[in-house]
Hints:
Elements: H1 11-29, H2 36-50, H3 52-57, H4 59-65, H5 76-95, H6 110-130, H7 135-144, H8 148-168
Helix pairs in contact: 2-5, 7-8
Amino acid sequence: MNEQPKPYMNAYLAGFLLGLVLLASFFITGRGLGASGAAKSVVIETVGHMAPEHAKSNSFYAAFFADGDGRPMKNWLVYLVAGLLGGAFFSGFVSGRAGLAIDKGPRISNGTRLLFALLGGILFGIGSQFGRGCTSGAALSGMAVLSTAGFLTMIFIFGTGYVIAYFFRKLWIH
Length: 174
């Protein structure tokens, strides 16, 4: 049996629902959404667990463990991302889209595609730390409170992506 996956949700409805989630986040927690902070918390907790002496001697890591109960894994963003991943898998299974796949153009190998995805993820993670937030934290939540930095972040994230895509577009075009 070859079951067709269900169509994607209307993008405008999905955007509206995302706005409601963001509004609920501000109302319930007093903060906007964010994902890069969760990744940072996991890295800091891992360093603190694997190399506790290094974490104590390094001022960056030590600041996160200074309060005693202020463990990085208690950051609500970690649970937000865990719920996001769980919801994404649930949605994928319900809609018939769950599975392993590598989306790529005809002129690129699987290995090169995965390498570029890894490099892009690393650059985006580093950039989110320099910019003090990612697309959801700095841009989406920032724009929700009419922050100039939020609008600039969104412009530069998508503007840079658009410019960089020009140089790699031949890899994706049939």
